[in-house]
Amino acid sequence: SKNVRITPHPSFDVLAATTAARLITRLLDVQSERGEATVVLTGGSVGIATLREIAQSPAHLAVDWSKVNFWFGDDRFVAADSADRNYGQAAEALLNHIPVDPARVHIMAASDEVADLDEAVARYAAELADAARQEWENDDASPAEAPVVPRFDVLLLGLGPDAHIASLFPEMAGIRTKGCSVVGVHNSPKPPPTRVSLTLETINSAQEIWIVAAGADKAAAVGLGLAGANAFQVPASGARGVNKTMWLIDEAAAAKVPSAL
Ligand code: 6PG
C-alpha cells in the first residue's frame, strides 16, 4: 500500500551494508536541507551490524556527525556496563568511533543510574519533550503547541520473530499505551525482562520508519506485519512512518511476503 516499500536483499551482510549506505546518504541529504539530522537507533542483530558497517564505510566521513541527534527506540533496563545494553552495543559499533556531540546522544537511563524503571521512563520522556520544545521555539512555521517529541528523520526498528518492534511485544500493555511518549516494560518475553521503549504513537511520528530484519525465523513476522494484522497481536503491522515505511529485509525473511503486495 501507500508509501510502504519492501526491499529484499541477498544476505544479512548485504542488508547491513546497504542499510548503512542508505542511512549515511539520508542523513547527509537531511543535513544539507536542514543543517542537522535526527536518527532513532535500534538494538538487535541487523541494527547493530548496520552501525558497524557505517563506521567501516569511507562514505561516513561525508556526514557531520556533530550535528546528528541520536535517540533510542528502546533499551534494556540493565546496569550501565552490561553487554546487553543497546546503547553500549551502539557505542561500541559506531558512536565511539565518530565525532558525535555528546549533548545530542540521548540515552535511556541504566538501572544503576535511576531509582527505578518509572524514573528512567520519566527522564526519557522529559528529554524528548525538551528537545521538541527547543525545536518548536526555533521554528517559525511550527504549530500552536509544542509537540512532545522532536522530529525524527529516520527511525530504525528491529523485528522479533513474534513481530515485536522496539520493546513493544504482542498482547502486552506497552503496545496499547497511548497519551505518553515512553513506556516501561516488565516481563518482556525476550530477555532481559525489563525495558524502556518508545510508544507506538512516538514511533509513528517519525518521517521514515525503516524496519530491518534478517533470517528465516523472521519470515512469519514480516508476512503478518505486511498483511495488515491487528497491531495488538502483531506490533510491527502498526508501524507507519509519516512519509515512508520501508521493510529492509533479507531473502529468508521475505519468504512469506503476501503475494498481493
Ligand atoms: C532489543 C531490540 C528489539 C530487536 C529485535 C530484533 O532491544 O532487543 O531493540 O526490538 O530489535 O528483537 O533483534 P534481533 O535482530 O537480534 O533478533
Automatic annotation (TrEMBL):
Protein EC: 3.1.1.31
SUPFAM superfamilies, alphabetized: NagB/RpiA/CoA transferase-like (SSF100950)
InterPro entries per UniProt: 6-phosphogluconolactonase_DevB, 6PGL, Glc/Gal-6P_isomerase, NagB/RpiA_transferase-like
Domain Glucosamine/galactosamine-6-phosphate isomerase: 13-247
Reactions accelerated catalytically: 6-phospho-D-glucono-1,5-lactone + H2O = 6-phospho-D-gluconate + H(+)
Its biological purpose: Hydrolysis of 6-phosphogluconolactone to 6-phosphogluconate.
Descriptive protein name: 6-phosphogluconolactonase
Stretches of the chain forming a coiled coil according to its record: 107-134
GO biological process terms on file: carbohydrate metabolic process; pentose-phosphate shunt
Keyword Coiled coil: yes
Cross-referenced CDD domains: 6PGL
GO MF, one annotated term: 6-phosphogluconolactonase activity
Family the UniProt entry places it in: Belongs to the glucosamine/galactosamine-6-phosphate isomerase family. 6-phosphogluconolactonase subfamily.
Signal peptide region: none
Pathway as given in its UniProt record: Carbohydrate degradation; pentose phosphate pathway; D-ribulose 5-phosphate from D-glucose 6-phosphate (oxidative stage): step 2/3
Keywords of this entry: Coiled coil, Hydrolase
